[in-house]
């Protein structure tokens, strides 16, 4: 008998998250995982590797609370925001009974995490402008315990209207947790909902050091919520979610100096994004570039598989979003260094547009 038959049915059927690293590629310009393009330098200061680490390292919690403008008891630190996504499901959703709800096109891990736990995934497609379809959400809330909203949304790059988020929070009151995924919020800090925690006991906000803090390899993320909700998550988290080196480096990244450096990165990446947006709009093979408040741009191409493959062959690795609902012909491009942006534009400018393709001899 195959060992596979012993696995839970939902695990047998599960398609794991197709992370950029799993998809592979042989590039030298990596623009498929929304990472920062240059490695920051850190020295380890903690050497007590014979001891278990703190479950919630005090200095990291204190500094993140200061940075986010919340109280220390409103912060949970975990192995990336991905673990935060999972902890919410584990704490709030009964397998086979409760559902999570999200609005595609959006980040893929909400679905994968729910599937892993045997929790129903209910979807309400975003409107054409990628805002929330609130009436359709209101009609779909039976048994929903957890609603994920990503703002700025990955992969579309748009912010969700704050009035709509308020309406959603009112709608979900007493029924479901609303998790606002702010993984990219450093690129538009004025849009954060962290100041709303005092109004909503059922609000959770997901954050990460993987993007503007340039530490995707560290695996460190945060959940912000009121103490009652954080206490529930602490019941289901692993005893030692962060290793000693992770806590050490996270604390350094959250020092005054670390935060200043992060803000410089945001300025640089935002300038590169504006530059790339203008250049893309002049490329014949680009149909549309969508406005973004994050460290990536989504664009629709006249022949996206050809564009993807041509750049791939030149070592420029983008993220294909073709299969996501409403995103046919779309590729997502992480904003890299100015040089990397130039490489993208150079490669794209050699590709024909729709009319030129049609003019090919029969
Ligand atoms: N949320 C969104 C919207 C993301 O794009 C990502 C990173 N791909 C995450 C959460 C997960 O971040 P982390 O690296 O902290 O697990």
TrEMBL record:
The modification N6-(pyridoxal phosphate)lysine is found at residue 211. The keyword Amino-acid biosynthesis applies. InterPro entries: Aminotrans_II_pyridoxalP_BS, Aminotransferase_I/II_large, HisP_aminotrans, PyrdxlP-dep_Trfase, PyrdxlP-dep_Trfase_major, PyrdxlP-dep_Trfase_small. Residues 33-347 form the Aminotransferase class I/classII large domain. Its EC number is 2.6.1.9. One of its GO terms (biological process) is L-histidine biosynthetic process. GO terms for molecular function: histidinol-phosphate transaminase activity; pyridoxal phosphate binding. Its cofactor is pyridoxal 5'-phosphate. Keywords: Amino-acid biosynthesis, Aminotransferase, Histidine biosynthesis, Pyridoxal phosphate, Transferase. Pathway: Amino-acid biosynthesis; L-histidine biosynthesis; L-histidine from 5-phospho-alpha-D-ribose 1-diphosphate: step 7/9. It comes from the Bacteria. It catalyses: L-histidinol phosphate + 2-oxoglutarate = 3-(imidazol-4-yl)-2-oxopropyl phosphate + L-glutamate. Coiled coil: none annotated. Homodimer. NCBIfam families: hisC (TIGR01141). Belongs to the class-II pyridoxal-phosphate-dependent aminotransferase family. Histidinol-phosphate aminotransferase subfamily. This is Histidinol-phosphate aminotransferase. It comes from Serratia inhibens. The gene is hisC.
């Amino acid at each position: 008998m195959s060992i596979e038959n012993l696995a839970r049915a939902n695990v047998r059927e599960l398609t794991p998250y197709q992370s950029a690293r799993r998809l592979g590629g042989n590039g030298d310009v990596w623009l498929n995982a929304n990472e920062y393009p240059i490695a920051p330098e850190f020295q380890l200061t903690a050497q007590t590797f014979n001891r278990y680490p703190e479950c919630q390292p005090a200095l990291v919690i204190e500094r993140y609370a200061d940075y986010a403008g919340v109280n220390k008891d409103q912060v949970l630190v975990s192995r990336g925001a991905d673990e935060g996504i999972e902890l919410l499901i584990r704490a709030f959703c009964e397998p086979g009974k409760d559902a999570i709800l999200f609005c595609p096109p959006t980040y893929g891990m909400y679905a994968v995490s729910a599937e892993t736990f045997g929790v129903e995934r209910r979807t309400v497609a975003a409107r054409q402008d990628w805002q929330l379809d609130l009436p359709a959400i209101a009609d779909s809330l039976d048994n929903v315990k957890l609603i994920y909203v990503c703002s700025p949304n990955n992969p579309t790059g748009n912010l969700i209207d704050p009035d709509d988020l308020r309406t959603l929070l009112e709608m979900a009151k007493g029924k479901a947790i609303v998790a606002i995924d702010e993984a990219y919020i450093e690129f538009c800090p004025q849009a954060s909902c962290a100041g709303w925690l005092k109004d909503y006991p059922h609000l959770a906000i997901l954050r990460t050091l993987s993007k503007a803090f340039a530490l995707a390899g560290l695996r460190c993320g945060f959940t912000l919520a009121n103490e009652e909700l954080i206490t529930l998550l602490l019941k289901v988290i692993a005893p030692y979610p962060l290793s000693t080196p992770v806590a050490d480096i996270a604390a350094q990244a959250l020092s005054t100096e670390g935060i200043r450096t992060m803000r410089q990165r945001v300025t640089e990446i935002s300038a590169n994004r504006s530059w790339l947006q203008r250049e893309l709009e002049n490329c014949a093979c680009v149909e549309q570039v969508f406005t973004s408040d994050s460290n990536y741009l989504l664009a629709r191409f006249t022949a996206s598989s050809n564009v993807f493959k041509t750049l791939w062959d030149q070592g420029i690795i983008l993220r294909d979003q073709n299969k996501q609902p409403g995103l046919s012909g779309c590729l997502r491009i992480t904003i890299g260094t100015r040089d990397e942006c130039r490489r993208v534009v150079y490669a794209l400018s050699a590709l024909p547009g729709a009319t030129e393709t049609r003019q090919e001899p029969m």
